[in-house]
Amino acid sequence: MRTSNYLLSTLKEAPKDVETTSQKLMLRAGMIRQLASGLYTWLPTGLRVLRKVEGIVRQEMNNAGAIEMLMPIVQPSGLWKESGRWTKFGPELQRIKDRQNRSFVLAPTHEEVITDIARNELKSYKQLPLNVFQIQTKFRDEMRPRFGVMRSREFTMKDAYSFHLDKESLVETYAKMHQAYCNIFTRMELDFRVVSADSGAIGGATSHEFHVLAETGEDLIAFSTDSNFAANIENTEALSPFKRQAIAEKTMTRIEAPEVRTVVQFAKQYGISIEKTVKTYLVKASDKMQEDVIALVVRGDHELNETKVAALCDVAYPLHVLTDREACEYMTGGKGALGPVGLGVPLIIDRSAAVLGDFISGANAEGNYFCGINWGTDVDATKVADLRNVVEGDPSPCGQGKLFLKRGIEVGHIFQLGSQYSESMGATVLDVYGRQQAMEMGSYGIGCSRVVAAVIEQNNDNLGIIWPDAIAPFQVAIVPVSGHKSSRLLDVAESLYTELVSKGMDVLLDDRGRFGVMLKDMELIGIPHIIVIGEENLNQGFLEYRERRTGKKQLMSVDVLKAYLENL
Amino acid sequence: MRTSNYLLSTLKEAPKDVETTSQKLMLRAGMIRQLASGLYTWLPTGLRVLRKVEGIVRQEMNNAGAIEMLMPIVQPSGLWKESGRWTKFGPELQRIKDRQNRSFVLAPTHEEVITDIARNELKSYKQLPLNVFQIQTKFRDEMRPRFGVMRSREFTMKDAYSFHLDKESLVETYAKMHQAYCNIFTRMELDFRVVSADSGAIGGATSHEFHVLAETGEDLIAFSTDSNFAANIENTEALSPFKRQAIAEKTMTRIEAPEVRTVVQFAKQYGISIEKTVKTYLVKASDKMQEDVIALVVRGDHELNETKVAALCDVAYPLHVLTDREACEYMTGGKGALGPVGLGVPLIIDRSAAVLGDFISGANAEGNYFCGINWGTDVDATKVADLRNVVEGDPSPCGQGKLFLKRGIEVGHIFQLGSQYSESMGATVLDVYGRQQAMEMGSYGIGCSRVVAAVIEQNNDNLGIIWPDAIAPFQVAIVPVSGHKSSRLLDVAESLYTELVSKGMDVLLDDRGRFGVMLKDMELIGIPHIIVIGEENLNQGFLEYRERRTGKKQLMSVDVLKAYLENL
C-alpha cells in the first residue's frame, strides 16, 4: 500500500473526552472513528488489525476442530422466550419490531439460534461431539458505552458452541478450547491470565475468563500470594472471618446529625472507624418470597457484590436495587439513611458484618443514626451470606495465602453450559440405547474488537502504538526521506516495496514527502519495522532500519536488510 | 475436512414451500437454514462458498485500488434525516429505538455514514480520488422476502463509495469498477449482462446493473434484436407509437354489466380487444400540486411502470397508489371501476393510451362502463407521458431493432451519485484554488449472498449443484467405497487427503461408509472433482476420477490423478 492511495487519517490530538490510552491511540492512529455513542467505524488501518486478530482466532479454532458457520444478527423473539432470556436479559438486549409488528432482537450472543439448529440437525450421538463457531457482529445496548471499542454497543465476537452426549465429552472440548484460547492470546503476545468466573446472563456452572492485565481494565482479578488461585472478584468468595461475634458492651442509642447523609460520612465526622458501621441496601425479592423487598447489610468499608447477591435464591434475578422513589416507603430521606433496625423487611447479613458488635447504622430517617447496635439484642441476624467483594489482604478462598487484586480486560470467556438451553429448548439426540437425551453444551467467546484495544493497552509508548508482528496493520514501513523531491530515493523505495510485497509482506510505502511527518505517523501507527531511505546513507550503500519497539537504529545494506526482514 | 467431524446436514427433500432451484438446492445441500422469514443461517458448506465469493470480490476491489474499511450496521437516524432518506426510504428501512428512546436504523446501504466520514477526514483535493469499500451485513425489511438468500432481509453486501473533485474523475473510477465487476463475475463463470438501470432509492443519474440471466430472476431485462442495447425494463423507454390518435367513430355510451369488476374482464366478456380498453390508477400527487391525487391511464394490456411514474414531478415520491378505502371518494365499488371520464382529478395518459379512439373504460361506478370514449370529445388528454413497461416487440429506444425480454437476477449495481449526498450533508474539500467544493460521489454494490444463489441457478442438474472451481465449498471429494470396513481403502484415502491438503486444496474426505449415500451427497453439494477409491480398481493400481459437471468417469493411477488435480 502507498499512503498516497490510502486513508491514513492520523490525528495530532485525540478528542478531549477520551479516557483510555488505547482509545486515544486508536483515534489518533486513524484506526477507528466514533459514529455515535458505542458505535465505531473501523478505518482501513484499524480493520487490517481486526482482520488479523480474526485470522489468528479462526486458524486456532480450525486447528482445534471447530467448524465455522454464520448465524443471523436479527433473531425472532420466540426463541428468546423459549430459553427464558427474553425476560432475563434486561435492557442490554436490543429489541426491535419489524413492519408487521413482530418482535426481534439484535443478538448479543447466539445460544438460542445454535440450539435451534442443533435440535433440527443433530439426531444421533454419532454426530457428537460437534463444535461450531462464527465470527459475527454482536449488539448490546450498553447503559454506558465507553473506552472506545473496549465497551462498545456494536462489536465483533468469535462465539463457539459445542454439543455433547455427556459431561465427560464437554469437559474434553472445554479443555481444548482453553488451550486454543491460550494459543490465540500467546500468538498476539498478550500478558494474560485465566481466571475462574461467574457465568452471568449466559448461564451454566464452570466458567473461565481470559484477562489481559492492564490498569484500565474494568474487571478486578483476585490472585493469591501463595498459590495459583486467580478469579474475577465477581466470583471470589469472601471467607467467614475467623473471629466470633463481638460481645456487646453498649446500649443502642439514637443520634441526630441532620447534615449527615450516610453512615460512612457519620463515622468520618465523629472519628469512628468505618469498620464499625454497616450499609444497607434494599433489593427486589424473588418470586418465591412472601415479601417484595429484602435488605442486604454489609460493613461500611465493604462493597456489595452484585453477582453474588443476584445468585441468592431469595433475591430476584436480574438484580434490582430499589430506586430512591421505591425505597421511600421504608424510610424518610435518601437511601443513605437506611439501617437494619426496625426496617421491617427480611435481612441478609454479610459474613463480615455479622460478627460486628456495638456497630453503627442509619436509623431509616434522614440524619438519624443508631450507635451501639448489637445483633440479637437490637436486631435479628438469622440469615448470613457472602455478599461482598473481596479486598486486598482477605484470605484466599483456596486456603493458601492472602489475596491481592489486579485490573484486567476480559478478552475471552468459556462456559460449561450443561443442559440448560438444550432442556428448555428440547435439543435432544438418541443415545447408544435409542433414548432421547438432552445434549450437554459449551459456549466459548472472544471479543475480537476488544482484543485490538487490549493489545494496545499493553503495547504502547509516548510515540504511539507498538504492534506485535502477528497483528500489525503493516509489518514494514518504507520512508524515503524527501522522496517527493528525489526520484532516486523513490526508485529505491519502490523497488524494495515491490520485492517485499512479492514475498507476501504487508508493506506501507509512505510517498508523501515530509520526513518528520511521515516518521511520526509510522511510529504512531506502530509499524514494527521502519526503513528510512536517506540520500547520504544511500550514497554509502546503506538503508536505515528502525525497530519500533526498542527504537534501535541500524544501517544495513539492502541485501542484509531484506534477509533480516524475511527471517522475522 | 472429514465428514465425521463436519456438519454436512444434507436433506433428501427440500421443504414444500420452496420456489426456486437455488433455494431448494441450498437447503438440500446443507448450505443454509431458515431462522425466520428472510433470515438465514449459513451452515458450514454455505459459508465456505460465501467466503470464497467474498474473497474474489475483495481481491478484485483491492486490485482496482479500493481500500477496505468497516462501518456500523446500527446508525443514528440523524444522518438519515440529513440526507433526506429517513422519510424517502419507506418501510424497508428498519428503524429501532435504543434504551434511551433514541432512533437508529439497521442500514440497508451506507451512503450516509461514508459521507459523514468523508466530510470529517477529507479536506483537500490532494486526498482524492478515494475509493473505499466494505463487506458487511445489511438489513432491509422486505415486504415479501423470498427465494431464500436471493431476497432476504439480512444479507451480505460489498458496498464501495468513491469520492472525486470532478465528474471526470468519477467517470474514470466508475469505469474501473465496471471492469472490476466484469472480472468478478467472469471469475465465477457467470453468464451475466450489464444493463442500464434506474437509480431508485440510492439516487444519482447514470447507473448500471449487473444481471445474471436466469428464468427465476425477479427483474425483466429488455434487449434489442439489432443492437447492444440492454436495460432493466424499469428504465426502458416505451417510445411514442408511430400512429396518430385514431379518429372518433362512435359516441360515448354507458353500459351496465353488474357482475363485471374490471374493464379487462368487460372486454373479455364482450369479445372486445383488450387493446381498446384503458386502466386507471389513482396515486398521491406531489407536494407542489394543488390536488392531492392524480389519475394515471394506461392501455388495458399494458402494465404501469412504477419507477417511471414515481419519477414524474407531479407524482409523490415514494409512489403511493391509493388503497380501496382511500379511492372510494372518487368512485363507488372497487378500483376496477375507475375510468378517466368525470373522475375529477388531473390525468396523465400513457403514450399508447393517448392514441386510442372509441375506447372503453370504467365509469367510476361498480359494474358501469363507458364505450366509445374519445380524447378531446369526452375527456381531456393534455398531459401525456411514458407510464408503462415495454413489452416484447416494442421498438428499441436506441432506434435499432425491436425489444425482446429476458429474466435477470441483479447481482451488482453501480451508481454515479454525483453530489446529492455531499451537498445535502456538506461534504466538501478545498480545490486547487482553495475554494470549498462538494465532492462528486460514486457508489458500487454487489450482493454477495445473492451471488451464491445466482451461481446455483446457472449451475445445476438433476443430481444437485455444480460449482465452478473458484467458489466450490471443497474442490475435491475423496470417497473410499465402504471405507469403514476396509482400513486399506481408508489408508489410501487418508494419505491422498493429506497430500492434497498440504498443497493448499480444499478437500472433503467422506469417511462415513455407505457408498451410495456418500456419492449422492458429494454430487448434491456439487464438489467439482470426486475421487472414488474402490477395492478392485485399487488392486489394479487405479483410482476413479469423476468430473461433476460432465459426469465423465476415468481410471487414473494415483500419480496421474495428483498431477491432474494440481494442474487445475
From TrEMBL, chains A, B:
Pfam families: HGTP_anticodon, tRNA-synt_2b, tRNA_edit
Source superkingdom: Bacteria
Keyword list, A-Z: Aminoacyl-tRNA synthetase, ATP-binding, Cytoplasm, Ligase, Nucleotide-binding, Protein biosynthesis
Annotated catalysed reactions: tRNA(Pro) + L-proline + ATP = L-prolyl-tRNA(Pro) + AMP + diphosphate
Documented EC number(s): 6.1.1.15
Subcellular location: Cytoplasm
SUPFAM superfamilies to which the protein is assigned, alphabetical: Class II aaRS ABD-related (SSF52954), Class II aaRS and biotin synthetases (SSF55681), YbaK/ProRS associated domain (SSF55826)
Recorded GO MF terms: aminoacyl-tRNA deacylase activity; ATP binding; proline-tRNA ligase activity
InterPro entries in the record: aa-tRNA-synt_IIb, aa-tRNA-synth_II, aa-tRNA-synth_II/BPL/LPL, Anticodon-bd, Anticodon-bd_dom_sf, Pro-tRNA-ligase_IIa, Pro-tRNA-synth_IIa_bac-type, Pro-tRNA-Synthase_IIa_type1
Domain Aminoacyl-transfer RNA synthetases class-II family profile: 33-468
Any one biological process term the GO annotation gives: prolyl-tRNA aminoacylation
TM helices/strands, residue ranges: none
GO cellular component: cytosol
Described purpose of this protein according to its UniProt entry: Catalyzes the attachment of proline to tRNA(Pro) in a two-step reaction: proline is first activated by ATP to form Pro-AMP and then transferred to the acceptor end of tRNA(Pro). As ProRS can inadvertently accommodate and process non-cognate amino acids such as alanine and cysteine, to avoid such errors it has two additional distinct editing activities against alanine. One activity is designated as 'pretransfer' editing and involves the tRNA(Pro)-independent hydrolysis of activated Ala-AMP.
Entry domain remark: Consists of three domains: the N-terminal catalytic domain, the editing domain and the C-terminal anticodon-binding domain.
UniProt record similarity statement: Belongs to the class-II aminoacyl-tRNA synthetase family. ProS type 1 subfamily.
Description of how the protein assembles with itself and partners: Homodimer.
Record protein name field: Proline--tRNA ligase
Organism: Marinomonas pollencensis
Gene transcribed to yield this protein: proS
